[in-house]
Structures are given as C-alpha cells and as structure tokens.
Amino acid sequence: MAARPKASRSVRPAKTRGRRRRNGAGAPDRREAILAAALDEFSGRGFAAARLDDVAKRAGVAKGTIYLYFPDKEALFQDLVRSVIGPLIERFEASAEVDLPARLVAERIVDMFVREIYGTRRKDVIRLIIAEGPRFPEIAEFYYREVISRVVAAVRGLLRRAAERGEIPAEALARFPQLLVAPGLVAIVWNGLFDRFEPLDVAALMRAHLDLLFGERRPG
Amino acid sequence: MAARPKASRSVRPAKTRGRRRRNGAGAPDRREAILAAALDEFSGRGFAAARLDDVAKRAGVAKGTIYLYFPDKEALFQDLVRSVIGPLIERFEASAEVDLPARLVAERIVDMFVREIYGTRRKDVIRLIIAEGPRFPEIAEFYYREVISRVVAAVRGLLRRAAERGEIPAEALARFPQLLVAPGLVAIVWNGLFDRFEPLDVAALMRAHLDLLFGERRPG
Amino acid sequence: MAARPKASRSVRPAKTRGRRRRNGAGAPDRREAILAAALDEFSGRGFAAARLDDVAKRAGVAKGTIYLYFPDKEALFQDLVRSVIGPLIERFEASAEVDLPARLVAERIVDMFVREIYGTRRKDVIRLIIAEGPRFPEIAEFYYREVISRVVAAVRGLLRRAAERGEIPAEALARFPQLLVAPGLVAIVWNGLFDRFEPLDVAALMRAHLDLLFGERRPG
Amino acid sequence: MAARPKASRSVRPAKTRGRRRRNGAGAPDRREAILAAALDEFSGRGFAAARLDDVAKRAGVAKGTIYLYFPDKEALFQDLVRSVIGPLIERFEASAEVDLPARLVAERIVDMFVREIYGTRRKDVIRLIIAEGPRFPEIAEFYYREVISRVVAAVRGLLRRAAERGEIPAEALARFPQLLVAPGLVAIVWNGLFDRFEPLDVAALMRAHLDLLFGERRPG
DNA sequence: GATGAATGAGGGTTCATTCAT
DNA sequence: TATGAATGAACCCTCATTCAT
C-alpha cells in the first residue's frame, strides 16, 4: 500500500511471451508457479494480508523473483484474476449459444458452473473479486467487461429464444439475467462462509433453481 | 494477523454507564462515532488495509481513544458487525411470522430488505462479512448463528405454510430457502462492484424474482 | 520518557506537609498508599516498564491522583527511594557508634541488615537502586551521599577502633569497608535472581562472613 | 512486555552460513554489530527503555535488519547475554582447576576477573543481568545454570583442596563460595553507580580481600 | 481535592520493494 | 536470470500526562 511507485498495469515480461530456456521440457513455469501460489495466499488471507514472502515460498522461488514477472503486488493480483477468469468466458459463451431447448442449455451451463468453477480454485478467484473488487476498480471493470457483460448478453440471448418458443413464461428473466446465476453466487459465498456449519449440495440447489424457473422437470 | 480466536468481547467502559460530559443531551456517543467511522473505513478498504488512524480521524477522536472502547482492531471489527447485524434479525423474524398469503409476506420482506439493508450502510456490513468472513471464523459463525440460521428457519416456515395452502407449486424452495434470498445477495454484490457500469434497479429485480417464484402477479 | 517537560525534583505538595483532612483519624494516607504501590510495581517490573495505571489501581486511587502528589513518574520513583532509604541510615549510624567489641557491633549491624533490610521490602528498593541507578544520576547521588558515604564512614570508625584494640588483624578492611558489606549485597542480588534455584540462608552467610573477618567465633 | 517464556532462541539467518558480500575479509559481521550496539543501548538505558531504533542506528543498519537476526527485542537481549557470558565460563573453570596453592589460584582468578570482566564490556552485561534478571526468568536461569552453579562448583573444589592442605583455616568459604566473589560483585555495582563520586581501585580491593581470606601476604 | 476519559507521541514489528551478488 | 539480505515507511498499540467535571 502506501506511496510506492505502483506501475500496476502488469507488464508481461518479454521473456514470458517468447519464452525460452529449457522450459517446454519439464521445468515448471516460474510465472505459473507464482500465480498458483498467489491464488492460494490471496484467497486464504485476502489481498492486503497476503505476504509476498509466503507466495514466494509456496512457489518455490525467491522473493525477488516475483518482481521479475510482476511489477508489484497489485499487478500480481490483477494478473492472477485475469489469468484465471480469461479462459473461462469463452467456454461459457460457446455453451450458451447452442440452439437447444433452454432448459437443456441451462442445465449444461449449470453443469459447467459446478464442474469448472465451483469444483475448482476458480470459485476462490470469484470470491476474491467479490471481496477485493471494491478496492480494485480495475479488477471490477475487467471482470464486468470480460465476464459479466458477456454472460449477461449470452444469457439474454438464450432466454429470449426460450421465451419466443414459449419455454419460459415471463420476460422477467430476460430483464434480469442475474436471477439465473444468483444461486451460483450464493453457493460460492455460502461455501466460503458457512459450509462447515451446514454443507450445501450445490448440484441439488442448482437443479431446484432450474425447476423453479422452468417448472417442475418431468423425469420421464 | 489472521483470525486468532481471542475472546475479545469488547468492553463498554464504565464511562458509558455513569456518563459525564454534556452527553445525554445530543452529543454523539464516542463509541457510536467510532463504530460509524470504522464502518466507513473497513468497508472502504477492507479490514487489513484500514488504518485505525483514519478511523480515529473520521470519528473525530484521538487514536488512543479507540482503545478505550475496543481492545483491538479485530474486536472493533467484530463489534461493528454485531452492532449492525444484531438488531436486524428480530425485525426480520417478526415480518416472516405474520399469517398472510406468502406472496404478501414475501413482498413485505423484500421491502424491508430494500429499505433497511440495501438502502442503508447495512449492506456494506454484509459485504464486509462476505469479504472478510473467511478470515474471521467468529464473525462467520456469529452471522450464521444469529442471522442465516434464523432467516432460513423463518423462511422455511413461511414457505411451508404457503405450500400447504397451495400458493407455491414446489417444495424446492422449502429445501433451499437460499433461493429466496439469492437475488438480495446478488444485488448487494452487484452494487459494490458494478453499479457504476450498470446500475441495478433492485426493487424491480426483487419484484421480478417474486414473479418467478409465485407466478406472474395479477396487477388487479 | 521522551520529551515531556519533566520537572523531576519531586515537590512535596503543601497539603502533604501540613496535612489536613480527616487524616490522623483513620483515613489511609494517599501519599503513602501511592508510594507503597509504586514500590510494588517498580520493583516488580522496573522503572520503565511499570505503569502508573497499575500503581494507581494498586493504591486504590485514580490515575490522575498520583499527579496531585508527584509531578511525574520519575519524581515518584525518586521520592520512593528517598522515603524508604532516608529513615534507614540514622538507625544504622547509631548502631555503628556504640563502643563495644567490633565483633559484637558487627553482629548487631548484620542483625539489623537481615531484619530491617533483607527481611523487608527495603531490599527491593536497594535492588531498584542497583538496577536503575545508572539511569538516574540523582538517585545514585542521593544514595551515595545519604547512605554509602555515611555507612562507609561509620564502618571505618568502627574498624579503626577495632584495629587499635587488636581485634582485627589487618587494616585491609579499613581501607575497603565495602568488603564488610559485600555479602549483604550479594545476598540481595542472589535473592532477586537465584533464590528459586537455590535458596540462600542469609543469616548463616553473614555469620560465616564474620567468622572469616574476625576469626572463628568461640561458641563458649 | 514482562518476561513471557517464549522459546525464542534467535535464529542465525542462512546468509551467515553461505555468506555473500565482502565479509570473510574483515567487514564486521552484521549480527555482531547489532549485538555490540545492543549492549551499549541496553546497558545505557535498561531493557525496557532502550529503543531498537537506536540500536539499529548505532549498529549502522536499518531497523528492520535487526529482525533478520533476532526474532524480537527480548530475544536480542537474551542472545546478547548468552553471547557475552557463554565463552566466559570455560575459561574460568580452566583457571580454577589447576593444582596450585589456593592463594595463587585465587590470584589468577582475580586477575582474570579484573582483566576479562571488570576491564571490558562484560561487566556491563553482568550489571544488566542483575538489573533485568528479575524480569527475565530465562536469563536468570541461564545465568544460574551456565555461570553461577559452575563457578560455585569450581570454587568449592578449589577451596576444599586448599582446606585439606591447611591453606585456609575454616570451611566457611566452602559452604558459601559466594563470599569469595562478593567483592567482584560489589566492584561492578560500585562502578556503575558511584565511580564518579569515588573511584574504586578494584585491583587493590581484590588484593585486600584475598589478604583477608588467606592471611596477610608475605611480600617476600 | 479526585476522577478517569481523552490525548498523541513513541516504539516494536511487519512487509513490499530494491539491489548487490 | 535468480537470489535473499537489507531497507524504511507504515501501522497497531501503549501509556505518561492533561483537564473538564
């Protein structure tokens, strides 16, 4: 924090783009190792309380090495979010575009959420965004631009098509696509805070949610 | 740092009992001023990054004064959460118990949420709990015990009655009362992260949500 | 410490000299209570680490009350030393002046040391002087002027008379009266540091010491 | 504050093992510089009042550097004592074990005391132990175990042999070896408190002491 | 006189960042 | 490139001292 220079805007060092050295063989990529360690530390303690020292230790590198790949702590955090969230969205858009009955598509999306997000460290990144976003406008903006707005658009498309086919009654959802994903968010938050008191069956939760939206599913 | 147990339980100094000074008239209570300032600072920067110095400045007291009312930074945080959340829950339970059609009760609850939480600083406290809860097991536990479990119970009761009267189709909701409040959570998170990109009409969101649950509302 | 005004030179407030109030009846003297509490706290934790808050608590007065009797922490410390050490010395000089065989006089002095110093809180004050003296030139000077130099003079007189009568062999002691009291100091230091590992029988130690100086004592 | 147990045991950082920098030539070791500075500051102001800031300044390092070598202020203090006292004792035991007339051995020991302790900063450490020992049980214990008990044992051996050979009259000393070293302690305390009022000729003091114990020394 | 809430300078400790090797 | 010792700005917390009541 404080008055350190703060170049922020995370510059990927040349060497990483055109990567050289005996990498590609078996040497674990330094940058990846650091990002992975950072995810652990940041989601375990929050951005401010996480120590780069611990990140370095966990990544198996020296503290100074982090600065070869990231200009500062904040940039490391931002790159972490980008690197985890970035790849996610394309897959999601693809899922949402297939032209099948909405319920089916929704189920696929839910499946993907459970498998690819809730079941992985990615949910921790989303939790991080929720927790730290207010302090990191750039992160929030990135997330809005790269994820939220596209998810919203994709879901809207899906729902409009469904509405046209009469698969869903109202246009409520099309106006507030957030309602479709709300339970996913709840699940992530619940998981972080209350799972040890009362574990949540996400899959069941999401199914119940779809039942509410699309009407009881006829198992037949 | 981290979340050491540390019973804490912040002691209200004697002075509040036998209070001196021109308090009793209308002078803002020191303790309240500090809590208010703490809410601002904590929700603005997060627990770890917030400076007690700033809390003091904002509260118009000296740094040391904070320690007359709270044993340490963590206790201040915990007391803040307790003092804001505590009073909330009773009102909520009362709302949920009235014996009226579920839709009506739900609407009242939604109204209360919008007015008493979303429209006040309380939403910031909830955001804080979401953000810091994983690092503060005591906070998470308190919140689970005092809020979540009671809300869940109250909502379950409400929904069961509604289901018995045939007002809502499924028992999905009774199994996952989280689904009822999910949009509230989404609204709070959205408000903190994305409102400046795309403001959210919470009232409309919540209404749409109720429409989905109870079927389109007949405006008549 | 630091840059506080520091009037030091402990001014006994007028009220204490010409003491008023229902004192003399049975009301415990405030000043004495504070000094007693200060002795406990200072000898328990050292000057710097002792807290006036604790002194006040132990004395049963409010923190501010201390400042009615002593200008600051340092003056309290100095007055403490003076009030405990002052009365001691006259008694000692009287003991040393009686015209009896040196061995007898020495035995009386030793007795007095054991009873009046080693056996009371006064030994703690001496320990305090040893510990804090280097930081409190005034204390050291007071102690040297009021105690050491007078003890040394008295002991010298005693020894010279004894030497003249042939009771002690050498003039070594007269040159270094410190040698006479050295075991007393050792006892005090030992008591503070090592008594829990190996308790010291002071009386026996002092007797052995006298035996060395005056030759074996014929019990007959 | 106070004297919490706290295993401490200050860790020598790796750098000392595989040392870099032009050390190995003659550059003063960081750790040593800090210890030396700490000795100055601690013995000048006492443990509690000494400021690590000043220690750092005096050692020519940054404040944070201290924490690379010592976990905290207390450990620095303890290590200081250990590092100064540790090496002392072996030499002393060796001196006490030679099989020569007791008077000669005693004179050697006294010489060693004057040269190696009284004439060096080591006397300041002993003063520190006396002053702070009551607050630092571990220090007192260490000192008792590593120094006192061994000195006592060595002196006892020495005296027993002397008694057997009839060199000293009584067994008083063997029961209270403290009597042999008492003047050394007095000298150290005197030096710290009263030397500016009345300097002490330690060598003469110690010689006079030996004369008392072993009988006048025949100059022939 | 007595009180104790309030003050704020100060000090121990942490940790992001730098840089000589 | 990689290292990790060194730096020093901050920040939490303490406590001597003040002063309104």
- As an assembly, this protein is homotetramer
Overall average residue pLDDT of chain A: 83
Instruction: Name the largest protein-protein interface in this structure.
Output: A-B, 52 and 53 residues
The assigned CATH architecture of the largest domain in chain A is: Orthogonal Bundle
CATH class designation of the largest domain in chain A: Mainly Alpha
Helix content of chain A: 55-70%
What radius of gyration of chain A results from the CA coordinates? 20 Å
**Uncertain spans of chain A, ≥5 residues at pLDDT below 50?**
1-26
How much strand content do the residues of chain A show?
A: under 5%
End-to-end separation of chain A: 59 Å
- How many structural domains does the protein architecture of chain A include? 2
- How many helical elements of chain A? 11
Q: What is the CATH topology classification name of the largest domain in chain A? A: Tetracycline Repressor, domain 2
Overall 3D geometry of chain A? elongated
Please tally the β strands of chain A and state the result.
0
Secondary-structure element order of chain A, N to C: HHHHHHHHHHH
Largest sheet descriptor of chain A: none
Structural class of chain A: mainly alpha
